[in-house]
Amino acid sequence: MSFNICEMLDIKFPIIQGGMAWIADSSLAASVSNAGGLGIIAAGNAPAEYVREEIIKTKKLTNKPFGVNIMLLSPYADEIARVVCEEKVSVVTTGAGNPGKYMAMWNENNIKVIPVVASVALAKRMERAGASAIIAEGAEAGGHIGELTTMTLVPQVVDSVHIPVIAAGGIADGRGMAATLMLGASGVQMGTRFLVARECTVHQNYKNKIISSKDIDTAVTSRRTGHPVRVLKNKLTRIYQKAEKENCSIEELESLGVGALKKAAKDGDIDMGSVMAGQVAGLIKKEQTSKEIIDEIIDEVSEILLKKEVFKWER
């Protein structure tokens, strides 16, 4: 299986692991890279020195390329932008902002920059800014989302830019990957599927909630704040949605979410924590190693793409 994104990133398979704050650390990133994909360390709102430590740990666990996801609204974004250069990280993925002011510095340090976008306009803007590729993420994804679905977003982004497009949102197996390749994507990014990787250090309660979830078990909160988030339904989502219906202030709504992701990911509080996950959570039924996950997906997509059945439609 050969795709230009593999050559660009020096990886075996066109699979990128999502940069999940409080979750995607050196353990998960290294395991994905060792399995042939591109592992990602999530900087989130963490200070620069934490990110540096995770990069150093990852280098000890793998000799393969890996990346760092930088949330550009983080108060530490400027420092982290320099750290990835100092530590010679191969790839940076970005979200929650415009990476334009860092592009020259990253390009000078041979860092491939791959922003996450939720619209055609932003994809074009990122290409003009010097991005190496684009991650087009549909609203099926977990965490912060846009409005368009992966099925509609990916082909429109593919048609609007001249750099590789990586599909994200609603992809957890070979069928999903094959579908996005047919839409013109050069590869996929997956977050929720890797949440249940054995090397993922997220709390076991979080993993168990993913594995036991059904197709209708996600909800979107925070629409009124302008920053919608997809999570698994729990006590917190019910409280939040009730507050939204009662027209509570934006400040009150935002206060409900403060520290909620850490509460779920690290403390295992799946009632009052924010259990971010995509709509594909209902497809995920077991824990596996990162290698088992990637091998299974590649076997599935290869079988689908190599099927010899030809459908002849009468006209």
SS element count, helices: 14
Query: So, CATH architecture of the largest domain?
Result: Alpha-Beta Barrel
What percent of residues adopt helix (DSSP H or I)? 40-55%
CATH topology group of the largest domain: TIM Barrel
Note down, in words, how this protein is organized.
The chain is α/β, with parallel strands linked by helices and 315 residues long. The protein folds into two domains: 195 residues, TIM Barrel, CATH 3.20.20.70; 62 residues, no CATH class. An eight-stranded parallel sheet has the order 1-9-8-6-5-4-3-2. Strands 7-11-10 form a three-stranded antiparallel sheet, with helices on one face. Helix 6 links the parallel strand 5 and strand 6. Helix 2 runs parallel beside helix 3 and helix 3 runs parallel beside helix 4.
